[in-house]
Structures are given as C-alpha cells and as structure tokens.
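Hi Prof. W.,

I finally got the Major Facilitator Superfamily protein prediction working! I wasn't sure whether to trim anything, so I left the full sequence exactly as given:
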Amino acid sequence: MYLADVTRSAGLRGGSLRRVAAGNVVALGLVSLLTDVSSEMVTAVLPAYLVLGLHLSVAQYGALDGLYTGATALTRLAGGHLADRFRRRKLVALVGYGLSAVSKLGLLGASGALGIGAVIAADRTGKGLRTAPRDALIAGSVAERDLGQAFGVHRAMDAVGAFLGPVAALALLALAGTGDYSVVFVGSLCAGLLGLVVLVLFVREPAAVQADPAPGAEPVLSAPGRVRARELLHAGAFRRLCVVAALLGLVTVGDGFVYLVLQDRDDLPVRVFPLLAVGTSLAFLLLAVPLGRLADRVGRWPVVVGGYGCLLGVYLLLSTDAGPLWLVLALYGAFYAATDGVLSALAVPLIPEALRTTGLALLQTGQALAYVVSSVVFGLLWQNAGVAVACLTAAAVAVLLLPCCALLLHRPGRVR
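And this is what came out:
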C-alpha cells in the first residue's frame, strides 16, 4: 500500500455528508463546541492580558505557551495508551474533558502569571488526554472513505464554539458592567460542564467500522490480537507521517503570536483583541466541511500541504503592513480548516484499529514537541530582532520544509 494511494482511493469514493453528519460525529462535535466556548471565553484574552496587562515579554510568552503545549506530550501518549489497552476511549476522553472543565474553577482564585499558568497547564493536560481518544471515536464511527468529511463536520462544530466563546465573554462583561472577569470564568465553567453532560448521555463507544482499503492493497499492519505500539513506527508510511507531523510543527507558531502581531502592526485597541479569534473561527467554520470533502475526493495530503501554504501566506502578510487584517484572518482560518482534521484522517488508514488512539497520540505528540521549539524561537526572534525578522524566519522555514513534507507524503514506498 502506498501512502498517496491510500488517501486517493479513499477520496475518490467519498460518501455523502448526510451519512457522516449523524450519531457520534455530531455528538462529539457538540461536546467540542461547548468545550471550545468554555476555553475560548478565557484564552481569547490571555495573550493580551499576559503581554499587555502583566507585561510579560514576547520571549517569556513564547516560552510559557510552548512549555504548556509541550507538557501535554506525555499526557497524549498516556491517554492513547490507556484508551487502547482498556478499550475505553470514551472514558479517557471524559477524564480529559472533565479536567479541562474543572480547571476553570482555578481561575476564580488565580492571580498573576504563575497562577493563571497553572490553570492553563491543567486545561491543556485535559486537552492532551482527550484529543486522541476523541479522534479515535470519530474514526470508529464512520467508514474510511468518509473520514475527511467526518473530521470536517466535527472541526466545523468545534469552530462554532471557538467563534462563540470570545463573543460570549464580551457579552457577559458588557452585561455585568464591571471589569470583574469572574463572571466570564463562571460562564466558562458552566459551558464546560454542559459539554460533559452531552458526552456522558449521547456519545457511545462504537464497534470497529470496516475500512475500505484500496483494491488489492495489503493491510497496513495485520496482527491479530495484541499488537505492540512500537510496531507502528516500524511501518514505513506511518513513520513518514510522524516525521512530517513533527516538521509541520516546526512551521507553526501559536495563535497568540499571530494575534499579538496583528495588534502591534495595526495598533488595535485591547478591547477588540478577542475578536481576532472570532474572525479566524468564522473562516474555519465556513471552510472545514468543504475542505474535508475535497480531501476525500482529491486526496488528503494535497489539502494538508495547501493548508500550510495558507500559513506561509499569513507569515508573509504579517511581516509587512501591506496585507489587510481580514485577509490574514481568512488565510489563518483556511490553514486550520485544511489541516486540523485532515491530518488525522490521513493517519487513520495507516493505523490498526486496536492501536488507533495510540497512533494518533504519537502523531500529535511529535507536533506538540516541535511546537515548543517554534514558539520559543519565534518569541526570542521577535524580542531580539524585531517582529518582521521573526515572521520572515517563520516563512523561510515553511518554504524550506513544505516541499520536503510533500515529497515524504507522496513518496512511493510499501508499508511493512
């Protein structure tokens, strides 16, 4: 089986949206929607609060952002291992979502960068635990030919939450009529708890869905019974995809940096800072399903590479004053729509069902660890050489690595 052939054969036989948008996919999408409302009510204002309010340097912010993202690497692997070993993906996802929801209680008593940082660490630990089991639940609920659309539907609903979160935060502050952020934190907690209720009542542990392999193709890993996790990395196609994911992590900087550059470049008022995330989420929402369907039809790897091409455009526009704000946000949303779920859809056919959660966790961990490097380096470059140099360096890294990633994804090579 060839890596490019897997995606092409699945894409050519993509199913209808009606077949995908049902059951677990929609239920998990609603859980993510509510969780993202909860998270984005808080995180949409954090970069501005930490850098502009608490006066952290951009280098310190980069280290903090990268550290807490990288710290989830072990929890991703632990969550994937436990979910596969005990065949309880819903339970592990529930623990992750629950930790993120309960962490919002800490915001009511947190003060200063360290206290808020501890809350962010707890929230992202929950995210690390839940992400791979959640994606495995989605993958187990649809046929392989519909994976791109299924992840597109889920990510579109997730984007609705990311869109509503900042709006809800601003609305609550306006209704309260004070600068007390505790009303936002209480609203965030309520949204997170509601997401847990939906997960418990409406998400089920699916039976394995029969995949639709390419005609005449061999299974990626045919090992009845228990399969050791390290065998995943002995499979050439999956190993190449993990390398690609790590390289793509080096290309990516955090959302907070993109929005801070826009705020600095366009001299935006701090009160409108959360609306930048709304703009990105709107583009993500509009494009997630169409790009997921496109990935199922024409192949998933070209869509992923095209998404990172959009990110390259974001870096180039941020390095100058020429690019309008709306175009930057539109390209940034397109980047997420083309990559966030499609990369998982690209991986699923390469992983045996018994180790699906572990495989997705390995993929995401490589990205998370590489993201630590990119965030720290971007912050240091901005502080010491200026924002234009930092953005142009990110663009140069993308120009260097994207062709390599495209070659690795499309490289013929039989999976062992």
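The chain has one domain: 3-204+231-410. Does that look reasonable to you?

Thanks,
D.
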